[in-house]
Amino acid sequence: MLTHLPAQNVKSLPALSMLRGIPEAQDRTIVEASSGSTVLSLGIIARVLWGHNDVNAYVTNKKNPESLNLLRFFGITPHLYGGLAQQEPTDESGIMCRLRRLTAKRKDVTYPGQYDNDNNWRAHEQWTGPQILRQLPEINLFCTTVGTGGCITGTSAYLKSQKPSIRTLGVFNVFGDPTPGPRHFQGFNSCGFPWEQLIDDFAEVASVDSYRMSMHLSREGLIAGPSSGQALRGLLDYIGKIKESEGLASLSDGATGEVSCVFTCSDLPYQYLAGYYQKLGAEEFPPIQNKARLHPHHRHISYVSS
Question: Where are the alpha helices (DSSP H) in 11-128?
Fold first, then answer.
């Protein structure tokens, strides 16, 4: 439950680690190509560490007003850019390369660079991996969604160093069908982190299944967002395939026969609520009773998908 960290998302630890690695950032403008967890964590933690209030998010112009207002609520300044919503870190015309060039020209600007800053994945090697192993030493399978690749790289590096038999499953978006946070597998080789020798298998999950599983988790008291639902859906699908093809003996504990799995809950659902009603059918939500009594100012709002 990475949502129990201070910024309530998976990026709390990488943000802390990256900021500690660039102490001069406390006197500079901080910029990051992020519209969600990373820049929110940077904004909160920079303020807590240093009283810093000049954090800037470079955000696709396709983001909805609610997401932009969330950034502003936390004191973060959004800067909109055009083009693809999910850009490759190595694209010379993309926002990440543009921010690298900006910081090379201006000494008053710092770009932590979540996609190529090793303090991103090392934070999970230092903290997330040890926490998991202490809580579940019998772990056989670790599963997480893959965005920057930091969590899966760092956590797996630690877990496999302590227990080489642990299998790692990376869960990705279906190409052209994004769930907020994770990326699609095609083109992920642009990630500079040493993930390839650490991921044993990968799965792809459609966004509608990610949102639905997230909603089921939340209704059962494990309040978690779309990428968390994607991780669990991918894990269950993967275990089902292994069971059908070769049986679960390769994943199970030799003494108990149990398969002990960990998946990450990396985000919360609240900032993505509109997506649940866009992706899922009206039959998945309780109807609003006495809807005719809605205040006239609210009658134009679509409360569920049709």
Answer: 12-21, 37-50, 65-73, 95-105, 118-123
Q: Where are the domains of the chain?
A: 2-110, 121-263
What pLDDT score does 64 carry? 86
pLDDT given at position 128:
98
245 Cα distance to chain centroid: 30
Asked whether 171 and 231 are in contact (CB, 8 A), the reply is: yes
Query: Which of 179, 171, 148 has its CA nearest to residue 261?
Result: 171
Question: To 5 degrees, how large is the angle CA 58–CA 204–CA 80?
Answer: 10
Phi/psi of residue 222, nearest 5 degrees? -95, 85
Distance, CA of 145 to CA of 136 (rounded, Å) = 20
Q: Which fold has domain 121-263?
A: Rossmann fold (3.40.50)
- Report mean pLDDT in 10-residue bins for the chain, 306 residues: 92 97 97 95 97 96 91 97 82 93 96 96 98 97 95 98 97 94 78 89 97 98 98 98 92 90 96 94 94 80 57
pLDDT of residue 242: 95
The sign of the torsion formed by the CA atoms of 175, 228, 68, 270 equals positive
Q: Within 10 Å of residue 233's Cβ, how many Cβ atoms?
A: 23
CA gap 6, 160 in Å, rounded = 27
Phi, psi of 160 (to 5 degrees): -70, -25
Instruction: Identify the pLDDT of residue 267.
Output: 94
Among 135, 132, 33, 12, CA closest to 79: 33
Integer Cα distance of 123 and 191 in angstroms: 17
Half-sphere exposure of 152 (CA within 13 A, CB side): 30
- The CATH architecture that domain 2-110 belongs to is 3-Layer(aba) Sandwich (3.40)
Joined tokens for residue 34: 């992020």
